[in-house]
Amino acid sequence: MKKRWWVLIIILMILTAIVAVFYILYFQIPIRFTSEQNIVNPAKTLSPEQAILDFNESYADYLIFLIGGQKLHNPPLSSNNPKIKIVLGEEIFISEVNKGVINTRRADLDEVDLIIRTSRQEIVNAILSSDAKLYLKQSVSSGNIQLEMVGSYPSLFSKGYLGLYKEITGEEIEGEGITGKIIRIFD
Fold first, then answer.
1. Helix %, strand %, coil % of the chain (to 5)
2. Do residues 164 and 91 make contact, with C-beta atoms less than 8 angstroms apart?
């Protein structure tokens, strides 16, 4: 009888070690993408006025790239790709990240993880600024760009959104059900 308990304890220890190694490899080590996606600044050679008129899916792709969206990933053992809705007044874009590749289309979708609300002007200003990442951080702080996390906390955590949020705002999100001016997480 004593032998069975030791065997059970050893099996549990091995399973715990496997789970710990999986967690470290999957969540803690930066993901290296093999994606060859070439995301370039679509407004690089345009004036701000031309860029606003020319605004299309490539601008949304570049915005998602600037905020680090290419680092998002599926949860373990899932095919549920990270999805981001970009709302520009009446215009809506959906960006989906699959293995580091950002794919944006004009559409509306209710089941997304993050909603970004802003204007064409704000995105173009960010893209054309000398330090786009700093501009985006300041724009989020001032409320010109609003981020709304609408996935569950475990889902957002497992897809990498919490790290993305910290990178954009400099703030960490701890625990479930946190609400705030910029972020709302539903359980």
1. 45, 15, 40
2. no
Torsion of CA 8, 13, 18, 24, to 10 degrees: 160
pLDDT tens by residue, 49-60: 999 999 999 999
Give the max Cα distance, the chain.
80
Burial of 61 (0-12, 13-18, 19+ CB in 10 A): buried
Rg (CA), the chain: 20
Token pair in block for residue 76: 């373990």
CB 120 within 8 A of CB 144: no
Q: How far apart are CA 142 and CA 156, in angstroms?
A: 24
CA 53 to centroid of chain Cα atoms:
27
Distances (CA, A) of 124 to 20, 95, 109, 151: 43, 17, 24, 27
Contact by Cβ (8 Å): 139, 118: yes
The C-alpha atoms of residue 112 and residue 122 are separated, in whole angstroms, by 22
Q: pLDDT digit string (tens) for 20-55?
A: 777 665 554 444 444 556 788 898 889 999 999 999
Nearest C-alpha neighbor of 139 from the set 126, 127, 148, 121: 126
Tell me how far apart the alpha carbons of residues 1 and 15 are, in angstroms, rounded to a whole number. Answer: 22
